[in-house]
Design brief:
37% strand, alpha+beta, 10 strands, globular, Jelly Rolls, 6-stranded antiparallel β-sheet
């Protein structure tokens, strides 16, 4: 009983001190949010015929979209994904993203049920992303029937720098590269033989 009274008295004193400081300084401590130097918004889509991946927060494998980026400043970053008419999920990976191994390099993952208007929003934050490190934000669905257009937002203390490299090569891209490389090698050998 004494502990409860003392705790309540301490909480009241702290609240009064904060209220006094707020009135003297001219702002409210409850209004303070993390400072965001940069915000990146981008739109994408998950194709129903694309490769599949199962987010750890999802019920089954779904198609996905990958956004490969780095940040310029080591600090906190916030992530948000919104879709309409389907339930989305977002997952963040560090260094490498392998769709066949959904736990390796995973930092955070989130999913959200849609509101009354059918809008689904997934959010989370990461206390510290490291500058210059490769990150992969994966947008997917909750079930195999969940796919479509989405809008994502990343915000934080530093710039969000999209990568120009392909994060997850499609199987036909790898196959095409192998065929093209083999054909170029044969052509080179043929030219070397004809010059001799």
């Amino acid at each position: 009983m004494q502990t409860t009274f003392s705790t309540n008295l301490l909480q009241t004193a702290i609240a009064s001190g904060i209220a006094l400081a707020s009135s003297i300084l001219g702002f409210s401590f409850t209004d303070i949010a993390p400072a965001h130097a940069a915000t990146l918004n981008y739109a994408g889509t998950t194709n129903p015929d694309g490769p599949t991946f199962q987010a750890i927060t999802a019920f089954e494998p779904t198609t996905f979209s990958v956004f490969h980026f780095r940040v310029s400043t080591t600090d906190r970053y916030d992530f948000s994904s919104t879709s309409t008419g389907w339930q989305n999920a977002i997952s963040l990976y560090r260094n490498v993203f392998n769709p066949s191994n959904n736990f390796t390099n995973l930092i955070n993952s989130s999913t959200q049920n849609p509101d009354a208007s059918g809008v689904s929003t997934s959010t989370f934050f990461v206390p510290s992303l490291a500058a210059g490190v490769d990150y992969f934000l994966v947008t997917s669905g909750l079930r195999s029937s969940d796919f479509g257009n989405f809008n994502n937002t990343i915000s934080g203390a530093g710039d969000i720098l999209p990568s120009t490299t392909t994060a997850v090569p499609e199987p036909f891209t790898i196959f095409g590269t192998l065929i093209g490389g083999t054909a170029a090698l044969r052509m080179r050998k043929k030219l070397a033989v004809s010059k001799a």
